[in-house]
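Input record (one chain):
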Amino acid sequence: MTESPGGSERVPSRDRRRFPGISSRAYEHPADRSALVALRKLSGFDTVFKTLSGLLPERSLRLLFLSDSVRVSDQQFTHLNDMLRDACYILDLEKVPPMYVNQDPVPNAMCIGLDEPIIVLTTGLVELLDEEEMRAVIGHEVGHALSGHAVYRTILLFLTNLALKVAWIPLGNVAIMAIVTALREWFRKSELSADRAGLLVGQDLQASMRGLMKLAGGNHLHEMNVDAFLKQAEEYEAGGDLRDSVLKVLNMLPRSHPFTTVRAAELKKWAASRDYQRIMDGHYPRKDEDKDTSVSESFRESAAHYAESVRTSKDPLMGLVRDIAGGAGDLGGKLRDTVFRGGSRPGGSGGTGGSGGANGSDGANGPDQPGPAGK
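The corresponding structure, as predicted from the sequence alone:
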């Protein structure tokens, strides 16, 4: 960090672009942005949830971290303090949130709190990442703060707890869990938004890639390769048959974060996009324009994103969706071919109306439990 000629303003220690007045809409994933724009339009919504959720729990958390963690400052973890100020300066977040380092060997970071968000890093994460990788992570958490994700994530926690309390009511739990499932999908997209914020802060795509790779495989960079790591994401998306597609969905549903390889692939795709380049060139939505944002336009952008995802996806299930949407002729045959791709299939080659079942029984049930959510 260096001081400005006036002697008071702290600015990044190396030449990075700054984004004065940037709105979080600039980097938010379309699905994340549409939800946030709609919720921000609800008069009094923020006030109600801040009142309900920010009384005792938030005070308790602040006291807990203040009493049993190390607060980052000019005297403690000074290099992290410099990175935090850098991130807030670059993304033009007016109030620098308090940041704590908590003793925990599991690499993780979080942005919590409603009225005044706080950032928490675990010692496992601090020890795992180098300076540029950590800069991207801190930018990720500052992105959460700028977007106001903490307020809206409270809805997910509130409804999850409510679902447990009304489980005895017929269909009550089902209705709430349907909403929770949808909110988890938004929650995962909010992580992709924050990854983009981290890239805007660090402005080093390779560092962002390395950080995600380390979260998946630990501190063994000499044993890992970014290109090979990204190929895993391609194999994950395109590999298998319809059964694997269903298992992917089931594995993902309870998770709060997208899978790490997927996050890396999504971030690299965004870094190569025109949207990212426009931001770097200084053309981006401004905070003072947020109040004029159209909810319907945001939802159209979100719908267009999902339509494009289905159109370009290599996943067998998405291919089937395209066939259904396009009114495919021999849909039964296509479904049969998709399910039994790579295996023996009864009936002659080509034609329709082949009868008979698959040889042997299909016992592929997948893992009983999905992997841990992770950072």
